[in-house]
Protein backbone atom coordinates (compact mmCIF):
# COMPACT_ATOMS: atom_id res chain seq x y z
CA UNK A 1 0.00 0.00 0.00
CA UNK A 2 1.45 3.39 -0.93
CA UNK A 3 1.68 6.11 1.69
CA UNK A 4 -1.16 8.01 0.07
CA UNK A 5 -3.52 5.12 0.48
CA UNK A 6 -3.06 4.77 4.23
CA UNK A 7 -5.62 6.63 6.29
CA UNK A 8 -4.40 8.97 8.99
CA UNK A 9 -5.57 8.33 12.54
CA UNK A 10 -8.30 10.96 12.31
CA UNK A 11 -9.41 9.78 8.88
CA UNK A 12 -9.57 6.27 10.22
CA UNK A 13 -11.76 7.37 13.12
CA UNK A 14 -14.01 9.30 10.76
CA UNK A 15 -14.28 6.33 8.41
CA UNK A 16 -15.27 4.07 11.28
CA UNK A 17 -18.00 6.38 12.49
CA UNK A 18 -19.34 6.90 8.95
CA UNK A 19 -19.26 3.17 8.35
CA UNK A 20 -21.38 2.65 11.45
CA UNK A 21 -23.99 4.95 9.91
CA UNK A 22 -23.74 3.20 6.54
CA UNK A 23 -24.02 -0.29 7.99
CA UNK A 24 -26.79 0.74 10.36
CA UNK A 25 -28.90 2.57 7.79
CA UNK A 26 -28.40 0.16 4.90
CA UNK A 27 -30.73 -2.18 6.70
CA UNK A 28 -33.39 0.46 7.19
CA UNK A 29 -35.62 1.80 4.48
CA UNK A 30 -36.99 4.99 6.02
CA UNK A 31 -36.54 8.44 4.53
CA UNK A 32 -34.62 9.71 7.53
CA UNK A 33 -32.29 6.79 7.35
CA UNK A 34 -31.58 7.43 3.73
CA UNK A 35 -30.57 11.10 4.23
CA UNK A 36 -28.33 9.99 7.03
CA UNK A 37 -26.86 7.28 4.84
CA UNK A 38 -26.27 9.72 1.99
CA UNK A 39 -24.62 12.19 4.34
CA UNK A 40 -22.22 9.52 5.52
CA UNK A 41 -21.52 8.35 1.99
CA UNK A 42 -20.71 11.88 0.96
CA UNK A 43 -18.10 12.20 3.70
CA UNK A 44 -16.59 8.89 2.65
CA UNK A 45 -16.54 9.90 -1.00
CA UNK A 46 -15.10 13.37 -0.58
CA UNK A 47 -12.36 12.19 1.78
CA UNK A 48 -11.79 9.01 -0.28
CA UNK A 49 -11.95 7.22 3.06
CA UNK A 50 -12.57 3.91 1.29
CA UNK A 51 -9.13 3.98 -0.28
CA UNK A 52 -7.39 1.43 1.95
CA UNK A 53 -9.68 -1.36 0.84
CA UNK A 54 -11.19 -0.14 -2.40
CA UNK A 55 -9.89 1.31 -5.61
CA UNK A 56 -12.94 3.45 -6.19
CA UNK A 57 -16.04 4.79 -4.49
CA UNK A 58 -18.01 2.60 -6.86
CA UNK A 59 -16.35 -0.57 -5.66
CA UNK A 60 -16.91 0.54 -2.07
CA UNK A 61 -20.64 0.98 -2.79
CA UNK A 62 -20.76 -2.40 -4.42
CA UNK A 63 -19.25 -4.00 -1.35
CA UNK A 64 -22.11 -2.51 0.67
CA UNK A 65 -24.69 -3.73 -1.78
CA UNK A 66 -25.56 -0.19 -2.82
CA UNK A 67 -26.48 0.84 -6.31
CA UNK A 68 -24.19 3.50 -7.74
CA UNK A 69 -26.74 5.37 -9.78
CA UNK A 70 -29.31 5.55 -7.03
CA UNK A 71 -26.63 6.78 -4.64
CA UNK A 72 -25.52 9.50 -7.04
CA UNK A 73 -29.11 10.53 -7.62
CA UNK A 74 -29.57 10.62 -3.87
CA UNK A 75 -26.47 12.73 -3.36
CA UNK A 76 -27.72 15.28 -5.91
CA UNK A 77 -31.08 15.37 -4.15
CA UNK A 78 -29.29 15.90 -0.84
CA UNK A 79 -27.55 18.95 -2.29
CA UNK A 80 -30.87 20.44 -3.34
CA UNK A 81 -32.33 19.71 0.09
CA UNK A 82 -29.48 21.55 1.75
CA UNK A 83 -29.75 24.48 -0.65
CA UNK A 84 -33.42 24.81 0.29
CA UNK A 85 -32.73 24.53 4.01
CA UNK A 86 -30.00 27.12 3.74
CA UNK A 87 -32.42 29.68 2.32
CA UNK A 88 -35.52 28.49 4.12
CA UNK A 89 -37.03 31.98 4.25
CA UNK A 90 -37.60 31.88 0.48
CA UNK A 91 -40.09 29.03 0.85
CA UNK A 92 -43.64 28.71 2.07
CA UNK A 93 -43.06 27.05 5.43
CA UNK A 94 -46.35 25.19 5.39
CA UNK A 95 -45.56 23.53 2.06
CA UNK A 96 -41.82 23.07 1.85
CA UNK A 97 -42.01 19.90 3.94
CA UNK A 98 -44.03 18.26 1.17
CA UNK A 99 -41.15 18.34 -1.28
CA UNK A 100 -38.47 17.02 1.03
CA UNK A 101 -38.62 13.53 -0.41
CA UNK A 102 -35.91 12.31 -2.71
CA UNK A 103 -38.43 11.80 -5.49
CA UNK A 104 -39.49 15.45 -5.35
CA UNK A 105 -36.04 16.93 -4.85
CA UNK A 106 -34.75 15.04 -7.84
CA UNK A 107 -36.95 17.23 -10.02
CA UNK A 108 -34.95 20.25 -8.87
CA UNK A 109 -31.47 18.88 -9.45
CA UNK A 110 -29.33 20.98 -11.77
CA UNK A 111 -31.34 24.17 -11.39
CA UNK A 112 -29.48 27.28 -10.38
CA UNK A 113 -30.00 28.82 -6.95
CA UNK A 114 -32.53 31.41 -8.09
CA UNK A 115 -34.65 28.98 -10.05
CA UNK A 116 -35.32 26.51 -7.23
CA UNK A 117 -37.56 28.83 -5.18
CA UNK A 118 -39.20 30.00 -8.39
CA UNK A 119 -40.06 26.44 -9.49
CA UNK A 120 -41.32 25.74 -5.98
CA UNK A 121 -43.57 28.80 -6.06
CA UNK A 122 -45.08 27.81 -9.43
CA UNK A 123 -45.60 24.24 -8.18
CA UNK A 124 -47.40 25.52 -5.07
CA UNK A 125 -49.71 27.64 -7.24
CA UNK A 126 -50.47 24.62 -9.38
CA UNK A 127 -51.12 22.41 -6.38
CA UNK A 128 -53.55 24.91 -4.87
CA UNK A 129 -54.81 23.63 -1.53
CA UNK A 130 -53.65 20.09 -2.24
CA UNK A 131 -50.24 18.59 -1.58
CA UNK A 132 -47.31 19.52 -3.81
CA UNK A 133 -46.06 16.43 -5.66
CA UNK A 134 -43.11 15.68 -7.91
CA UNK A 135 -45.49 16.07 -10.88
CA UNK A 136 -46.19 19.68 -9.91
CA UNK A 137 -42.47 20.32 -9.62
CA UNK A 138 -41.79 18.68 -12.95
CA UNK A 139 -44.46 20.75 -14.71
CA UNK A 140 -43.35 23.92 -12.95
CA UNK A 141 -39.80 23.34 -14.04
CA UNK A 142 -40.84 22.77 -17.63
CA UNK A 143 -42.83 25.98 -17.47
CA UNK A 144 -39.95 28.00 -16.10
CA UNK A 145 -37.30 26.47 -18.28
CA UNK A 146 -38.71 24.92 -21.42
CA UNK A 147 -36.52 22.44 -23.28
CA UNK A 148 -35.56 20.87 -19.96
CA UNK A 149 -32.55 23.06 -19.63
CA UNK A 150 -30.12 22.31 -16.86
CA UNK A 151 -27.67 24.55 -15.07
CA UNK A 152 -27.73 26.98 -17.93
CA UNK A 153 -29.56 30.12 -16.97
CA UNK A 154 -31.69 31.27 -19.82
CA UNK A 155 -30.76 34.83 -20.66
CA UNK A 156 -34.12 36.44 -21.10
CA UNK A 157 -34.57 40.13 -20.38
CA UNK A 158 -37.50 41.85 -18.67
CA UNK A 159 -39.53 41.89 -21.86
CA UNK A 160 -38.99 38.17 -22.43
CA UNK A 161 -36.51 38.67 -25.27
CA UNK A 162 -33.33 36.65 -25.60
CA UNK A 163 -30.27 38.69 -24.61
CA UNK A 164 -27.48 38.61 -27.23
CA UNK A 165 -24.31 36.75 -26.24
CA UNK A 166 -22.15 39.85 -26.34
CA UNK A 167 -24.27 41.36 -23.55
CA UNK A 168 -24.01 38.27 -21.35
CA UNK A 169 -21.57 39.89 -18.97
CA UNK A 170 -23.69 42.99 -18.50
CA UNK A 171 -26.72 40.79 -18.02
CA UNK A 172 -25.12 38.58 -15.39
CA UNK A 173 -24.20 41.62 -13.30
CA UNK A 174 -27.88 41.96 -12.45
CA UNK A 175 -27.55 38.90 -10.23
CA UNK A 176 -24.59 40.46 -8.47
CA UNK A 177 -26.59 43.63 -7.98
CA UNK A 178 -29.62 41.88 -6.62
CA UNK A 179 -27.35 39.96 -4.27
CA UNK A 180 -25.95 43.19 -2.84
CA UNK A 181 -29.44 44.60 -2.65
CA UNK A 182 -30.61 41.53 -0.72
CA UNK A 183 -27.65 41.86 1.64
CA UNK A 184 -28.71 45.38 2.52
CA UNK A 185 -32.19 44.12 3.26
CA UNK A 186 -30.76 41.53 5.62
CA UNK A 187 -28.74 44.25 7.35
CA UNK A 188 -32.01 46.07 7.99
CA UNK A 189 -33.45 42.93 9.57
CA UNK A 190 -30.34 42.48 11.68
CA UNK A 191 -30.52 46.06 12.92
CA UNK A 192 -34.20 45.72 13.69
CA UNK A 193 -33.39 42.85 16.02
CA UNK A 194 -30.72 44.92 17.75
CA UNK A 195 -33.04 47.93 18.02
CA UNK A 196 -35.53 45.91 19.98
CA UNK A 197 -33.07 44.72 22.59
CA UNK A 198 -31.37 46.50 25.48
CA UNK A 199 -28.48 48.52 24.14
CA UNK A 200 -30.14 49.18 20.80
CA UNK A 201 -32.51 51.89 22.05
CA UNK A 202 -30.57 54.74 20.49
CA UNK A 203 -30.30 53.17 17.10
CA UNK A 204 -32.16 55.46 14.68
CA UNK A 205 -33.78 52.40 13.17
CA UNK A 206 -36.59 54.07 11.23
CA UNK A 207 -34.21 56.46 9.51
CA UNK A 208 -31.78 53.69 8.73
CA UNK A 209 -34.58 51.52 7.47
CA UNK A 210 -35.87 54.12 5.05
CA UNK A 211 -32.40 55.09 3.79
CA UNK A 212 -31.16 51.54 3.34
CA UNK A 213 -34.39 50.51 1.64
CA UNK A 214 -33.96 53.36 -0.82
CA UNK A 215 -30.36 52.35 -1.50
CA UNK A 216 -31.22 48.68 -1.80
CA UNK A 217 -33.96 49.55 -4.27
CA UNK A 218 -31.71 51.84 -6.30
CA UNK A 219 -29.09 49.12 -6.59
CA UNK A 220 -31.54 46.46 -7.72
CA UNK A 221 -33.11 48.77 -10.29
CA UNK A 222 -29.77 49.71 -11.82
CA UNK A 223 -29.37 46.23 -13.27
CA UNK A 224 -30.01 45.08 -16.82
CA UNK A 225 -33.63 45.63 -17.80
CA UNK A 226 -33.93 45.08 -21.54
CA UNK A 227 -31.64 45.07 -24.55
CA UNK A 228 -31.79 48.52 -26.13
CA UNK A 229 -34.47 48.45 -28.81
CA UNK A 230 -32.91 51.26 -30.85
CA UNK A 231 -29.52 49.63 -31.37
CA UNK A 232 -30.27 45.97 -30.51
CA UNK A 233 -27.41 46.07 -28.05
CA UNK A 234 -24.68 47.49 -30.24
CA UNK A 235 -24.70 50.86 -28.49
CA UNK A 236 -26.39 54.18 -29.17
CA UNK A 237 -27.27 57.49 -27.54
CA UNK A 238 -30.38 56.11 -25.94
CA UNK A 239 -28.55 53.39 -24.03
CA UNK A 240 -25.44 55.51 -23.45
CA UNK A 241 -23.52 52.94 -25.48
CA UNK A 242 -24.11 50.21 -22.92
CA UNK A 243 -26.43 48.22 -25.18
CA UNK A 244 -29.10 47.91 -22.50
CA UNK A 245 -31.67 49.90 -20.58
CA UNK A 246 -31.62 49.48 -16.79
CA UNK A 247 -34.71 48.31 -14.96
CA UNK A 248 -35.15 51.77 -13.43
CA UNK A 249 -35.64 53.40 -16.81
CA UNK A 250 -38.22 50.84 -17.83
CA UNK A 251 -40.42 52.22 -15.10
CA UNK A 252 -39.87 55.79 -16.21
CA UNK A 253 -40.20 55.30 -19.94
ZN1 LIG B 1 -28.86 51.56 -27.69
Describe this structure in words.
A two-stranded antiparallel sheet has the order 1-2. The chain is built from eleven helices and two strands; from the N terminus they run ααααααααααββα. The chain is mainly α and about 250 residues long. The protein is extended, with a radius of gyration of 24 Å. About 55% of the residues lie in helices and about 5% in strands. The mean pLDDT is about 85. It folds into three domains: about 5-65, no CATH class; about 85-145; about 165-250, no CATH class. The structure holds zinc ion (ZN).
Q: How would the blueprint of this fold be written?
A:
Layout: H1 9-26, H2 31-46, H3 57-63, H4 68-86, H5 93-96, H6 102-105, H7 115-127, H8 134-144, H9 168-195, H10 205-221, E1 224-227, E2 244-246, H11 247-252
Antiparallel strand pairs: 1-2
Helix pairs in contact: 1-2, 2-4, 7-8, 9-10
Bound molecules: zinc ion (ZN).
Essential attributes:
single chain; 253 residues; mainly alpha; two-stranded antiparallel sheet
**Which percent bin holds the helix content?**
55-70%
The major beta sheet can be summarized as: 2 strands, antiparallel
Q: How many domain regions?
A: 3
> Total helix count?
11
Specify the structural class. Answer: mainly alpha
Helix-strand sequence? HHHHHHHHHHEEH
Tell me the radius of gyration: 24 Å
